Amino acid sequence: MATFTCQSCGNTFTLPRQVLDRYPGWTPPLCLDCRGARSTSEPVADDAGPHTGVFTDGSASPNPGPGGWGAVYVVDDEIVAEAYGHAEHTTNNRMELTAVIAALDLVPEGTPMTIYSDSNLVVRTINEWAADWEKRGWKRRTGKVENVDLVRKAYYGWRPELTLEWIKGHAGYRWNEYADELANRWRD
Question: 175: domain range?
């Protein structure tokens, strides 16, 4: 872990060496609290539901470029668990899929739960298209399946007690905004 001083509040904070190794010469200017305080997700109303589920998000900026993903497991507005990570060079779709895969590990087996993603592409991929692609040997009618490694992992990891639903991104849903912030923090 490396220690830094926040340019806003003056508090010290740490980051894992593996994060810094991916961005040689980079010095983070703000701690996570101050970075979050500047985020557009902070004014979100506390009662903006849903209040239970696993909320996921992924990001790459530029796309492709450095990426981050986040997943937060919430029951009755209480965080049960969260997961997050990054990739040095990736796409937003890969990060969205990675977040959904991580969500599978957050929910104990046998627990009915809804996983939310603001990526309609990911939701439709898992809910509608993956079964047909599997039957065709992981091919689309028009060619190859993009990100097939992650699509297969999500599809084969799915459990019957889980549902995957689309949630509108950047619309004030508290826990979706939280997942978005995790993805952005780990991307930068």
Answer: 45-187
Q: Could you confirm whether 180 is annotated as catalytic?
A: yes
| 64 and 33 together in one domain | no
Residues 6+ apart with CB under 8 A from 87: 66, 67, 68, 94, 95, 98
State yes or no: is 58 an active-site residue.
yes
What amino acid occupies position 7?
Q
52 and 33 in a common domain: no
Active site residue 96: yes
Looking at the fold, whether 77 and 141 belong to one and the same domain comes out as yes
- State pLDDT tens for residues 113-161: 999 999 999 999 999 999 999 999 999 999 999 999 999 999 999 999 9
143 is catalytic: no
Residue 107's Cβ-count burial label (10 Å; 0-12, 13-18, 19+) is buried
> Among the options 53, 96, 177, 181, which is catalytic?
96
Q: Is 78 assigned a catalytic role?
A: no
Query: pTM of the prediction?
Result: 0.74
In the set 58, 67, 68, 85, the catalytic residue is 58
Residue 62 and residue 11 share a domain: no
57 classed as catalytic: yes
